[in-house]
Each structure stands twice: as structure tokens, then as C-alpha cells.
Amino acid sequence: AAKAAGSQLMVYTAELDERADATARLGADLRHSLDDGDFRVVYQPIVELDTGRARACEALVRWHHPVRGVVSPVDFVPVAEDNGLIVELGEFVMRTSCWKFAGWRRDLGRDAPGYVSVNVSARQLSEPGFPEVVAGILAETGMEPAQLLVEVTETALFGGGVAVAAVETLHRAGVRIALDDFGTGHSSLGLLRTVPVDVLKVDKSFVDEIIAGGRPPVIVDALIHVSKGLGLRAVAEGVETAEQADYLRELGYEYAQGYYFGRPVPEPSFHARAAVPDDR
Ligand code: C2E
Ligand code: CA
Ligand code: CA
Ligand code: CA
């Protein structure tokens, strides 16, 4: 038995080594791809439920790996956080998104989105000088601070300290702050008292509970009350069906995003579309 356990352990460590190798390779590829310009940004509309109009959008990074094709951020953002490249990558995403937004404001007239939402990781927030980098990008693109929404996770703020101080600095400068994946991290409700937050992004896992004939989706219901009570804007994430959109609107949600309204694409359309409620 001891021998069997021993060989199992060897298999296990070999697997771990392989995984570590794969991660190291991915990390090295990230470096090359940053230099070669293999990253793109796509934008997913954030829709006003009453009118069906895209009022804003979220920027999401895409990696066009020279060999593997498109790699999901779920697979490489954690690697970039570990090796620190997220700082450079995140700045690229922020700058690209803000220039894109400035172009829409210039070209689209009254169809232009009101703000662009950009994901910022814990590592970026904790990097000294991050608020200054953001201020510089706003200045070069001519954006108003309130036209930028920075999405941070509860987990990124859990440690307090530098990350929270950065959020406070950004917020004082007029940049708006969203708590991403709200309800899935640590100490959700307590954070709302200590960190300046403008928007709650209600996680897809709670929206998924809205199923025809299913049990009442109690958490999306509770969270709209929490956000209204605190004077925050709620955005429901991951809406995939008309039923979910209708249900959320009836609960009092004003904003949502999800494949039902539009997938993330390089050039989203912000043209007014037919109202969601009746004429489907
Ligand atoms: P997230 O910030 O929660 O972004 C929402 C994710 O859900 C996106 O996946 C989006 O494409 C996907 N999504 C939107 N609507 C639907 C829907 O109706 N159904 C389903 N199944 N999925 C939907 P994506 O683009 O693969 O990004 C995954 C995660 O990677 C993001 O989750 C975010 O945590 C991270 N990420 C993406 N871009 C960036 C970035 O520029 N910087 C940082 N730090 N993280 C990023
Ligand atoms: Ca997000
Ligand atoms: Ca999210
Ligand atoms: Ca998520």
C-alpha cells in the first residue's frame, strides 16, 4: 500500500509540474504577445431594460494567441496577475477602451454610450501610481472622469490597504466604481459601508436562478432592494433569455447585460432598438 501511495504521489507531482510548466509557458507567451500586439478589446452592451437601449458597455480583453487562437481571459488573467503582466495588460485595456469611447462620443451623437466600464484586477489597484495612470488616460482622451466606470471585485478589496486607498482616490477624482460579481466574494455587504461604490454588478449565478416555473430567485430580489436602499445602480449580469429580462424589469432592475442583449464584439451597435417589453 505504501508503494502504491508513493507512486500515486509521483504521478500527482508530475501532473503539478506539467501544470506549472504550462502556466510558465503561458506567462512567457503573454510577454511576447504584449510586445507583438496580440491583445484586442471587445465591448458588451449594458442595456436599459425599459427601452432596450444600450446605454454603456463593458470592455473585455481577448488574446489572439499566435498558435492557440483565441484564449479566454478566464485562463490567462490569473496568470497575468501572478506574474505581474496584468499591470501592463490592464493599462493597455484601459487606454484602448477610453480611446474607443472618445471616438464613439465624437461620432455617434445621441446614440453614443454614456460610459465605458473597465475591469481592474487587485494587482493593478495595488500598483503604486495606478490612479495617476488613470488620470493620464482620461486627460489624453478628453474623457470626463464620470464616463469611466472601474469594475473591481469584492475579493480585490478584501485585503483593504492600498487597493481600497486607490479606489478612494479614483472616486474622489470623479471616476465611478462598480463592485463586480457582487454577492460571490468576501464580506459583500460590509464593503458597501467602507468603500465608495456607485454600481453593483449582480453576478450571473443569481440571474441564472430566474427559470420559468422554478423557485423564486430570492437573491436577485434581495439585491435590488439593497442597491436601491443604498442609492446604488444595479446592473444584472449574464441575462440570456427574454424571461430573465422581463423578470428583472418587474423586480425593479433598470440595467442589464448578457447574451440576450448582445455578445461582446469589437464594434457594438448603440443604435436605439425596439423596446424589450411588448413588441417581441
Ligand atoms: P466578468 O468581468 O464578470 O465579465 C463577464 C463575463 O461574462 C465575460 O466573459 C462575458 O463575455 C461573459 N458574459 C456576458 N454575458 C453573458 C451571458 O449572457 N452568458 C454567459 N455565459 N456569459 C456572459 P469573458 O469576456 O470571458 O471574461 C471573463 C472574466 O475575465 C471577466 O468576468 C473578468 O473577470 C475577466 N476579464 C475580462 N477582461 C478583463 C480585463 O480587461 N481585465 C481584467 N482584470 N479582467 C478581465
Ligand atoms: Ca466585469
Ligand atoms: Ca461580472
Ligand atoms: Ca464573472
Automatic annotation (TrEMBL):
Residues 23-278 form the EAL domain. This is Diguanylate cyclase/phosphodiesterase. The chain holds residues 476 to 755 of 769 of the full protein. It comes from Actinoplanes cyaneus. The lineage of its organism: Bacteria, Bacillati, Actinomycetota, Actinomycetes, Micromonosporales.
